[in-house]
Amino acid sequence: MSVNDNNLVRIRDLHFSRGRSKIFDGIDITIPKGKITAIMGPSGTGKTTLLKLIGGQLKPQKGSIQFHGEEIPTMKTKKLYEARKKMGMLFQSGALLTDMSVFDNIAFPLREHTDLPEVMIRDLVLMKLQAVGLRGARDLRPSQLSGGMARRVAFARAIALDPEMVMFDEPFTGQDPISMGVLVQLIRSMNDSLGLTSVIVSHDIQETLAIADKIYIISQGKIMGHGSPEQMNQSESPWISQFVHGDADGPVRFHYQACPYKEDLMAECHLEL
Amino acid sequence: MFDWFAVIGRNTVDFLARLGAEFLLFLQTVKGFYALIWRPSLVIQQLFSIGVRSMLIIIVSGFFVGMVLGLQGYNTLVDFGAEESLGVMVALSLVRELGPVVTALLFAGRAGSALTAEIGLMKATEQLSGLEMMAINPVERILAPRLLAGIISMPLLAAMFSSVGIFGGYLVGVDLLGVDTGSYWSQMQSNVDFHKDIVNGVIKSAVFGVVVTWIAIYEGYTCLPTSEGVSRSTTRTVVYSALTVLGLDFLLTAIML
Question: Does residue B167 contact residue B63 with C-beta atoms inside 8 Å?
Answer without folding.
Answer: yes
